[in-house]
Every structure is written in structure tokens, then in C-alpha cells.
């Protein structure tokens, strides 16, 4: 199910705290960074926080700049993004500012929490998600029922920890403030959890007065049929590589990336790479790898087009090369049409041998873009 793009936003002290343990909210950012946060808020469809943040900070979570609100309205959007709260208990203060400022509000909760929230008269659309709160269901609901395409999660630590460990965060915008809290009772940005083992990708650093903004993207593929945000990033890269292929009238332009379970890129390739007129993307990528690399058994192959099941130009089709490499998870954007090979079914070949194939059709247009001339 498609999800919104999920951006985690937080400011932390040098010792990793979101706040101190006192009653007042600790100010970590300065005016310029708060203005940057306002700009990000103005760019999203919805802002999400956990009940802990509503209780601790009583935030409004508005777009503060009148110019930014006016620009949103001029673009046909509400002045403020949808405000989203998450609570298991439903035990929230109905007088909190969150409910009485800005535009629409939605509270995701459990069946029991919904009863409690309704009894308290919480001024929001109360959506129960079952006996327990399921983040994937929440994100699908926001996407499908509320049209949310970009979601900014503004904390707190429990919310960020779950979105990151469950592979649901597309991006982390972290501001590091030059102060130390030093109190073991103060809330931390990330709690214990099953995080991805490898490194995140650093996409930007920016000095803003005396704080530093760092933007990271998680890189770890999902497991089995579970799609992670990083799966979408890698598939988008495969589609981008497809656009770099030398054009052909007799073969598709395809990009492929092989990624280890910890998020390390192992190899990439594209059709007709290196002047080889018949090279396929997956073949080009796999050829760069040591076939005994133990990471292949848990790696994922991302290919903009379903790996081929039959080919005239070489003895082994790409579905076979992937199986022989030991890879058992493939993510693709587009099933192969009958343009060159009738009834091509690379997915059938792969799944018949125990591989998982996921088709993320929201990337199909990107995968087709460099192949339009072949599609009539
Ligand atoms: N520096 C920053 O950028 C920043 C930003 C935001 C917040 N903060 C700070 O962060 C602190 C609050 O963080 P926090 O970690 O304590 O709280 P939080 O993440 O804001 O909220 C946690 C609450 O959300 C609900 N929740 C989250 N996941 C759930 C799930 N899977 N199932 C059911 N309910 C779930 C629960 O509500 P119920 O208890 O109602 O069940 C839980 O107690 C505050 O001190 C605040 O100042 C700092």
C-alpha cells in the first residue's frame, strides 16, 4: 500500500536529548532554524506528533509565517497542514492547544483509546486502528483517506524510534544544538530498538546560526514482502540509472542496484553499460560482484524493469543470474511487456525458485520514461 513520504524532524542536544526533564520546554534551536522548520511545515500535507509531546509541550504546530500560509492557500491547499496525533490510551487533555488551533485534526488511536478520547470530547476526527496501533495502517489511511503525500513527524522520541525501526522513515532532519543536558531522566531522540545495521546516507549538512542541520536517508531494504522507505529510494535510483542507458530501438533501458541487508550498496548497473550493446542492467551489476560474497544471500536486487525470463543475446536470462547469485529478494517497478519477448515472466521464474518479487507500480511511469519510444 502506498504511504506518504515520511520526514522525521527533531532538534537534539550534543548528548542526544530532545528536552530536559524540567517542566518548561528546552529551547534547542534559534530563530533561523525555527523559521526553517516553519518552511518545512508549510511544504507538507500533515504534521504528526505523539501524545507525549502534546502532554509535555502543549504545542500548536502551525505554519507561523502569513506569507507561507497565503502561498498554501493560493496553491489550493489549506492554510495549515492537517494535524495528526497518536495516542494508545486516548487520555489527552481536551483543552490542549493542539485541538483548538490551525485546521483539521485527526487522532489515531486504539479501539479502547477511541472510547476514552470520545468520552473526553477531543475535538478531532478520532480514528481507531484496532486493539493496537499499527503504523503501516496509519500511514496507508493518511495516504488513501486524507490524501497525505508528505508527512512531517515532529516527535517525540517514541514516535521517531518506531518510524525509524519499522523502516517507515524516508528522511531524518536532525538539528544538533551546542548544549548538553546530562540528565538521565531527560527524553532521548531514539530509544533502544532494532535499527538498520549499516550506515544511513548523509544527504546534507547546513550550519544555521550555532546549530547544524543534518539530513539523512535510511538505506536498509525491507525484509520479505515488507516494503521499507529505503526500498522506494533504491528503486527510484534504479529508474534514474535507466535514464542513463545509451538509447536503443531494439532493447529496453533498465537500471539495477544490488543492496545488502544492512543498506550497503554492493553494485549498480544499466543496460548497454560500458559499450556492450546487449548488456542487461542486472547482469552488469552482478558482474561487478564476487559470486562468493556472503551478503548476496540476504541482498535485494532493485530493477526498474522485471528481470528477464528469456533472452536471445546471452545464455542466461537475468532471473537465472539473480537466482545463481543467491539473491532471493527483487523489487521492481514494471512487469515486462510483450514488446520483444511474448509472455515474459521473470517474476514467475524467480518466485518458482523461492525468491520474493515486489512490484512497486507507483514507480512504473519513471521506469517507462526512457522507453516511451518502444511502447507505441
Ligand atoms: N527537540 C525536539 O525536536 C522535540 C520534538 C518533539 C518532542 N520533543 C520532546 O519529546 C518529549 C516527548 O517524547 P516522548 O517520546 O515521551 O513521547 P511521544 O513520542 O511524543 O509520544 C509517545 C506517546 O504516543 C503514543 N504512542 C506512540 N506510539 C504508539 C503506539 N505504537 N501505540 C500506541 N500509542 C503510541 C502513546 O500515547 P499514550 O500514552 O496516550 O498511549 C505514547 O505514550 C517531550 O519532552 C518533548 O518536549 C522534542
From TrEMBL:
It catalyses: 2,5-diamino-6-hydroxy-4-(5-phosphoribosylamino)-pyrimidine + H2O + H(+) = 5-amino-6-(5-phospho-D-ribosylamino)uracil + NH4(+); 5-amino-6-(5-phospho-D-ribitylamino)uracil + NADP(+) = 5-amino-6-(5-phospho-D-ribosylamino)uracil + NADPH + H(+). Keywords: NADP, Oxidoreductase. Residues 229-343 form the CMP/dCMP-type deaminase domain. Pathway: Cofactor biosynthesis; riboflavin biosynthesis; 5-amino-6-(D-ribitylamino)uracil from GTP: step 2/4. The keyword NADP applies. Pfam families: dCMP_cyt_deam_1, RibD_C. Gene3D superfamilies: Cytidine Deaminase, domain 2, Dihydrofolate Reductase, subunit A. It comes from the Bacteria. Converts 2,5-diamino-6-(ribosylamino)-4(3h)-pyrimidinone 5'-phosphate into 5-amino-6-(ribosylamino)-2,4(1h,3h)-pyrimidinedione 5'-phosphate. In the C-terminal section; belongs to the HTP reductase family. In the N-terminal section; belongs to the cytidine and deoxycytidylate deaminase family. This is Riboflavin biosynthesis protein RibD. It comes from Streptomyces glaucus.
Amino acid at each position: 500500500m502506498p504511504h506518504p513520504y515520511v520526514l522525521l524532524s527533531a532538534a537534539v542536544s550534543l548528548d542526544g536529548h530532545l528536552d530536559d526533564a524540567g517542566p518548561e520546554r528546552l529551547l534547542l534551536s534559534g530563530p533561523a532554524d525555527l523559521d526553517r522548520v516553519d518552511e518545512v511545515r508549510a511544504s507538507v500535507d500533515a504534521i504528526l506528533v505523539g501524545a507525549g509531546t502534546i502532554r509535555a509541550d502543549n504545542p500548536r504546530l502551525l505554519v507561523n509565517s502569513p506569507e507561507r500560509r497565503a502561498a498554501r492557500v493560493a496553491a489550493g491547499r489549506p492554510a495549515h497542514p492537517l494535524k495528526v496525533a497518536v495516542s494508545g490510551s486516548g487520555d489527552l487533555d481536551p483543552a490542549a492547544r493542539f485541538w483548538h488551533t490551525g485546521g483539521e485534526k485527526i487522532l489515531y488511536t486504539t479501539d479502547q483509546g477511541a472510547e476514552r478520547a470520545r468520552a473526553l470530547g477531543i475535538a478531532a476526527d478520532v480514528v481507531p486502528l484496532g486493539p493496537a496501533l499499527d503504523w503501516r495502517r496509519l500511514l496507508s489511511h493518511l495516504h488513501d483517506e486524507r490524501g497525505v503525500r508528505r508527512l512531517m513527524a515532529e516527535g517525540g522520541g517514541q514516535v521517531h524510534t518506531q518510524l525509524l525501526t519499522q523502516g517507515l522513515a524516508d528522511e531524518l532532519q536532525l538539528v544538533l544544538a551546542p548544549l548538553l543536558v546530562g540528565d538521565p531522566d531527560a527524553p532521548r531522540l531514539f530509544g533502544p530498538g532494532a535499527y538498520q545495521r549499516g550506515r544511513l546516507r548523509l544527504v546534507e549538512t547546513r550550519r544555521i546560526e550555532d546549530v547544524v542541520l543534518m539530513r539523512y536517508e535510511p538505506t536498509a531494504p525491507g525484509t520479505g514482502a515488507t516494503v521499507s522507505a529505503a526500498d522506494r529510494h533504491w528503486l527510484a535510483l534504479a529508474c534514474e540509472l535507466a535514464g542513463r542507458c545509451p538509447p536503443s530501438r531494439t532493447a529496453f533501458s533498465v537500471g539495477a542496484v544490488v543492496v545488502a541487508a544492512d543498506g550497503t550498496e554492493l553494485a549498480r548497473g544499466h543496460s548497454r553499460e560500458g559499450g556492450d550493446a546487449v548488456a542487461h542492467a542486472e547482469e552488469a551489476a552482478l558482474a561487478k560482484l564476487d559470486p562468493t560474497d556472503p551478503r548476496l544471500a540476504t541482498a535485494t536486487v532493485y530493477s526498474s524493469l522485471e528481470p528477464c525470463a528469456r533472452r536471445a543475446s546471452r545464455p542466461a536470462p537475468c532471473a537465472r543470474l539473480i537466482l545463481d547469485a543467491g539473491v532471493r529478494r527483487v523489487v521492481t517497478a514494471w512487469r515486462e511487456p510483450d514488446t520483444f519477448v511474448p509472455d515474459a515472466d521473470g517474476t514467475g521464474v524467480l518466485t518458482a525458485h523461492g525468491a520474493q518479487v515486489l512490484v512497486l507500480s507507483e514507480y512504473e511511469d519513471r521506469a517507462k520514461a526512457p522507453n516511451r519510444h518502444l511502447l507505441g
